């Protein structure tokens, strides 16, 4: 089996995590989540080693120096996120495809590193206003963090056309059904 990458990117609040979780629950034998490393604090119910590898900035910088990342990004000022080479290899060795929830710049970078194996999907909210409502409604970020995420979101929405597919996340059930179809079509191909 040739291991593939299915990349979900979008501004924070668009619904990537919700859609990716749906796919993971439905197709646990086919796909596994690439757990990124991050220097941010765990949020809500998040678990270390499941949602992220929560590590210190020193540890993150050490991993950069040792070239352990396929891509990494200072997504928010002072907060780093990165995809570990060991994660992708671990999942492929199990005979599964890898599913990612990463920011738009990281998503495009990853796509360009695996041109024959990756599908990049941009999750599009109905509008910037709806995105803000969703992010606020999630109730996991402080007012400062929300402002930082809102400020980045408008710029990130302009990246949609650079992705292989734009997945509209207006109605969640419709978006999940469409995501399933995209996934199955892509992994069944050659
Ligand atoms: P992201 O991972 O892109 O930051 P999340 O998956 O955390 O986004 O979704 C942000 C918030 O919006 C969550 O509270 C989620 O339940 C909600 N949400 C996601 N998709 C929809 C949708 N289609 N309609 C309404 N709310 C949604
Ligand atoms: P959050 O703090 O909301 O979990 O994530 C913030 C942003 O960082 C999201 O857009 C998320 O997709 C992105 N992100 C998570 N992991 C990675 C990663 O490994 N690399 C990059 N470039 N972005 C990531």
From TrEMBL:
GO cellular component labels: cytosol
Protein name, as recorded: Guanylate kinase
Coiled coil stretches, renumbered: none
Binding site for ATP: 10-17
InterPro entries xref list: GK/Ca_channel_bsu, Guanylate_kin-like_dom, Guanylate_kinase, Guanylate_kinase_CS, P-loop_NTPase
Record bears the keyword Endoplasmic reticulum: no
Function text: Essential for recycling GMP and indirectly, cGMP.
Source organism per UniProt: Sphingobacterium spiritivorum ATCC 33861
An annotated Gene Ontology molecular function: ATP binding
Major location category of this protein: cytoplasm
